[in-house]
Amino acid sequence: MFDLPLSFKIPIMVVALLVAIIGHEIMHGLVALKFGDTTAKEAGRLKINPLLHIDLVGSILLPSMLFLLNAPFLFGWAKPVPVRMEQVIFGGGYFGAFAVSIAGVAYNFALAVFTALLIYAFNGGIFAGFFEYFSSPNFVALLVLYFCLQLLIYNVVLGVFNLIPIPPLDGSNALAYLGLMFKNDFFARLFDRVPPMIGMILLMIILSTPLSRVIFVPVQTIINLLL
């Protein structure tokens, strides 16, 4: 369907990935700011300038390696936005901490839904005439659709991946603070005992074994539903 040269595909994929991962991190900082934590704002990390957010490994090396390995999609992360959870809890209680933890995932899923609506609008919906406006083969329209599709895929992947309740992913923090909201500290105590490095090792085991289905099946299901 998308018979585009690599010189167009690669920049589109990179931009779509950056929109997904940078927006994810900025949302953490914006919600923290709402509850009184100005750390991210004072550090200048609420700006959309990619240079402020790019992580050498997560934003460059890993996506490049996945592309060279012909992976079905790129994946990565941006530099974490600094947040002082104690200040957030002071300003918004455990609900505030939960909101900050889940903000990035909420951004990813919201953007995925919005992008799905755009795809519908341009491909048979209210903006279908956009295709007819350009002479065959509607190259500009094809670029727009390809960007939207990549944006949808990356946001769903990031949203599902970050919901995994293993430190240091957002899912573990969200689950811990959700429990504390209901005066249950089981998950908070459990995740405190799991060092981030151990969590990353567990994630690598999941991704490199048949257990990866816990990620890829929900990702594929959500993408199919949205499309």
Structure characterization notes:
This protein has 227 residues and is mainly α. Helices cover 70% and strands 0% of the residues. It has ten helices and no strands. The chain has helices at residues 6-34, 39-42, 56-68, 85-122, 129-133, 139-162, 170-181, 186-192, 196-207, 213-226. The protein is globular. The two termini are 15 Å apart. 30% of the residues are buried. The mean pLDDT is 87.
Brief sketch in words of this structure:
The chain is mostly helical and 227 residues long. It has helices at 6-34, 39-42, 56-68, 85-122, 129-133, 139-162, 170-181, 186-192, 196-207, 213-226.
Helix fraction, binned, reads: 55-70%
**Count of individual helical segments:** 10
Strand content: under 5%
Radius of gyration: 19 Å
Order of helices and strands: HHHHHHHHHH
Mean pLDDT: 87
For the terminal residues, how far apart are their CA atoms? 15 Å
* Biggest sheet architecture: none
Quaternary: single chain
Structural class: mainly alpha
Q: What brief labels describe this structure?
A:
single chain, 227 residues, mainly alpha, 70% helix, 0% strand, globular
Layout of secondary structure:
Layout: H1 6-34, H2 39-42, H3 56-68, H4 85-122, H5 129-133, H6 139-162, H7 170-181, H8 186-192, H9 196-207, H10 213-226
Helix pairs in contact: 1-4, 1-6, 4-6, 4-7, 6-10, 7-8
